[in-house]
Amino acid sequence: MQSIISIQGLTKTYASGFHALKKVDLEIRRGEILALLGPNGAGKTTLINIVCGIVNPTSGTVRADGHDIVRDYRAARTKIGLVPQELTTDAFESVMATVRFSRGLFGKPPDAALLEKLLRDLSLWDKRDSKIMTLSGGMKRRVMIAKALSHEPQILFLDEPTAGVDVELRRDMWAMVRGLRESGVTIILTTHYIEEAEEMADRIGVINKGEIILVEDKAVLMEKLGRKQLKLHLKSPLEAIPSELSGYPLELSADKCELVYTFDTRGDETGIAQLLRKLGEHGIDFKGLESSQSSLEEIFVSLVKGARP
After folding, report:
1. What's phi and psi for 193, nearest 5 deg?
2. 306 domain residue, yes or no
3. Are 81 and 89 in contact (CB under 8 A)?
């Protein structure tokens, strides 16, 4: 699939000597939702700010829809919308005025119908004449999204877009994100709500200490790194796992009423059938089974831990 953003050998070193980014290579596909995950200080916001022209890179190249972000800044920036973490709107302006002004900054002609649709989609139409200073935090976040979309960008960066937002608004925002993706907009988001990335993203990128650890299709990542567990609810408490079963990846719960069997989803054989026979041979009866798979959060934590020296 064609890339809409191409990042090659990108580095950022600050005057203090801190290496925020270390030779980052990343291809972002046109029309996808890419979730960029990483702990605080990993380099997520620095990477976004460089692509958006807010921070200058130390070395490397970035192209947005074919335009070099340094040599062809204006054309590149026109393709990009950014919703930053911080709420940086003019508190004394009305909602409509600030969105209209943002569109004009990119040299776009007035389009009242487009702005009306945008504000209606974000449930802001009834607030169009309200001063931003009177709005709730969630409504201000919606205004930031409206500003970012006012010039009809093909690429949208959402840097922690639902931080401090209530559950209902978060749900509305993700419905809007899905609609944007369906219309062809490429979306790159950072989030601390990993369940959102698991639900929304097509691909997952993990960054740690300025380096991209992994970029993978979400489904493939879950299949490759996900573990499945079979939880057996025992009829009677078990004092200890028999030594004859020591070769199986079994754990006994603290209350001694559950056995947990962990297995690799990639294997040809799960070993479950053989395990159940062995349990029967040792007179270990169970009254129920329950299976589960590793969440994206568990996978993310294991990747970051594994990357640490």
Report:
1. -90, 90
2. no
3. no
Angle, CA 149 vertex, CA 147 and CA 151 arms, to 5°: 95
Please name the residue that has the structure tokens 């988001």.
189
Regarding whether 177 and 81 lie in a shared domain, the answer is yes
Task: Compute the distance between CA of residue 279 and CA of residue 284 in angstroms, rounded to an integer.
Answer: 5
For residue 257, the domain's CATH number is: 3.30.70
Q: Per residue in 57-70, pLDDT tens?
A: 999 999 999 999 99
The answer on 48 and 150 residing in a single domain is yes
Domain count for the chain:
2
pTM for this one?
0.75
Average of per-residue pLDDT across 129-157: 91
Residue 38 in domain: yes
Q: Is residue 152 part of a domain?
A: yes
Q: Give a yes or no: residue 273 inside a domain.
A: yes
* Residues 133 and 36 grouped into a single domain: yes
Report yes or no: 239 and 254 within 8 Å, Cβ to Cβ: no
295 confidence band (pLDDT: 50, 70, 90): low
Across the chain, what does the average pLDDT equal?
Answer: 86
Q: How far apart (Å, rounded) are the C-alpha atoms in residues 13 and 22?
A: 8
Alpha-carbon distances of 10 from 13, 23, 54, 57, 241, rounded to whole Å:
10, 5, 15, 7, 52
Q: What is the span of the domain harbouring residue 58?
A: 3-222
Residue with more model confidence, 51 or 301:
51
**What is the side-by-side strand order in the sheet with 33-37?**
80-83, 155-159, 186-190, 33-37, 203-208, 211-217
CATH of the domain at 98: 3.40.50.300
pLDDT tens digit sequence for 215-269? 989 887 776 666 677 888 888 888 889 888 888 888 888 898 988 887 765 555 6
Average pLDDT over residues 136-159: 91
